[in-house]
Amino acid sequence: MNTRKYLIKNSLVACLVGCCVSLASAGNPPFFTTDAVLNAKGELLMTQKGTRHLDIFSADGKSLLHSFPFDEIPTGLLPDGDKVYVTTFEKTGRLQVLSLESGRVEAAIPTGSGACHPMFGPDKKHIYVCNQFDNSVVEIDPVMRKVVRSVKVLREPKSAVFSKDGKYMFVTNFLPAQRADVDVVAACVSVIEMEGFTKVKDIQLANGSNALREMCITPDGKYIYVSHNLGRFTVPTSQLQQGWMNTSAFSVIDVAKQEFVGAVLVDEPDRGAAGIWSIACDDKHIFITHSGTHEVSVIDHPAMLAKFESYKDKSRLDYDLNFLYGLRERVTLQGNGPRNFIFSGDKLIIPTYFADILNTVDINTLEVTATDMNPGRTETPENKGEKYFNDANHCYQGWQSCNGCHPGDARTDGMNWDLMNDGVGNSKNCKSMLYSHVTPPSMISGVRESAEYAVRAGFKFIQFFEPEEEMAKCVDAYMKSLRPVPSPYLVNGELSDKAKEGRKVFEKLKCGECHSGPYYTDMKMHRIGEDIEFEKGWDTPTLIEVWRTAPYLFDGRAATMEEVFEVHKHGIDKKVSKKDIEALTEYVNSL
């Protein structure tokens, strides 16, 4: 990598002068920006999770012009003249139509659980929305203001791009959708044929690919680049050097062939680039934000492509930490947690999720100007804990944060890991952190007596860093603050008729003897199932939000909850009908 000193121009504004809306007061909550775009006027539009607002700033981020509240968290936005289409989700996924003239929401179109990433189709006549938790993409007629077509993908779609001819949509699946006790575990990109609006292919990426974030298509339409984490789950978690556990990459997909070609690592041999997030490109450059190390990579696009296309064995490319040597500059940003960004003309506009500092990068000089968009910003212990959870700068060589194995708001990556705390050679499926502090012990083997102990051990043995107690307490507070997402299996927030029948089966089979109480766990160890590794058995996990944590059982051998009961007979010692298993599955997935 070429070493360069970057000029950081700090215009950290103490107060906003001449704004239509003032932010200059103490005690302001964090923004937690979920999306940002420029409108036709050059104004900066941002959706904020922390305030549930759509904010409109001047292009430099110094003046807040307008602010519009929403009833649920805004997750994405799509400006269109005097209207803005805003996806929102907490309980009900919707595309809301905001009139900028009146400041009113003119319509709220139900889309599906986890609505995000609104975008116009190639014909500009339809809007498409990813429903992360409904595992679907929907087509919306903005004139009729209703969903006209829907298609299922694999698991947690969060972003999409169209081929240049408009015939296909490529959709990221955030996590692998398969069993984990096999040699190859990786997330896929789904391909939607637009005329029939049907899924025609799932393109599996390199082994260990997970947390698929964003995509971009090259100007000539030949390739699609997908940013994602690359977990090295096949080895014990004994060290960090040279990306031993986690690396960051962007995968290359051949659009015409609809095939995975190779994965390019964006880390270096002795310096990680954790928390890869958004990606964009033009003919000259590829831009990538690193939310864990608080940087943006600027890559020489033509040189990278020439080297990539001439690389002999692309199946080994995802282990080559030297590939980008001499082809990329790493630009340090102000603030913490750069995620989504805007590529406009000769500059990058980059908000920071955990600081509300807006970075503007001149792509010709790599000069950075930083503006404080939220003076008076204050953080609760929970806010600080989430920041520490996602920050890789305190990790040895910046290889990973807690988010590396627990992406998607401290949940699971869908893979098995061989942690050193219960021996070697005995991989276990990654667990969600939801309710971990109130359902001890921790780990499926119960080897950690509490989540508090596990948090501190995780920093020490996974990030090779001794946290100060105050930092660890903040991470505890963040994890304690996690709340379940309403199950997409619910109907208007209630159990379906099928799930109600499943509850009867749950009771008949006495599942509640182990899965009892408000968290559906007795917090005890039980010898159940096959391959019981320890004499005391396995810890009983909570069933809350279990619909989100596939695959199942201690080593992820069951890809679906139905397989847990039908194939592996978990907790079932008698003959159960197919109908009862389907109802039981529906009930458990509704918790």
TrEMBL record:
<keyword id="KW-0732">Signal</keyword>
<dbReference type="GO" id="GO:0020037">
    <property type="term" value="F:heme binding"/>
</dbReference>
<protein>
    <submittedName>
        <fullName>YVTN family beta-propeller repeat-containing protein</fullName>
    </submittedName>
</protein>
<dbReference type="InterPro" id="IPR011964">
    <property type="entry name" value="YVTN_b-propeller_repeat"/>
</dbReference>
<dbReference type="GO" id="GO:0046872">
    <property type="term" value="F:metal ion binding"/>
</dbReference>
<dbReference type="InterPro" id="IPR011048">
    <property type="entry name" value="Haem_d1_sf"/>
</dbReference>
<keyword id="KW-0479">Metal-binding</keyword>
<feature type="domain" description="Cytochrome c">
    <location>
        <begin position="497"/>
        <end position="591"/>
    </location>
</feature>
<keyword id="KW-0349">Heme</keyword>
<dbReference type="GO" id="GO:0009055">
    <property type="term" value="F:electron transfer activity"/>
</dbReference>
<dbReference type="GO" id="GO:0004130">
    <property type="term" value="F:cytochrome-c peroxidase activity"/>
</dbReference>
<keyword id="KW-0560">Oxidoreductase</keyword>
<dbReference type="InterPro" id="IPR036909">
    <property type="entry name" value="Cyt_c-like_dom_sf"/>
</dbReference>
<keyword id="KW-0408">Iron</keyword>
<feature type="signal peptide">
    <location>
        <begin position="1"/>
        <end position="26"/>
    </location>
</feature>
<dbReference type="InterPro" id="IPR051395">
    <property type="entry name" value="Cytochrome_c_Peroxidase/MauG"/>
</dbReference>
<dbReference type="InterPro" id="IPR009056">
    <property type="entry name" value="Cyt_c-like_dom"/>
</dbReference>
<dbReference type="InterPro" id="IPR015943">
    <property type="entry name" value="WD40/YVTN_repeat-like_dom_sf"/>
</dbReference>
<dbReference type="Pfam" id="PF02239">
    <property type="entry name" value="Cytochrom_D1"/>
</dbReference>
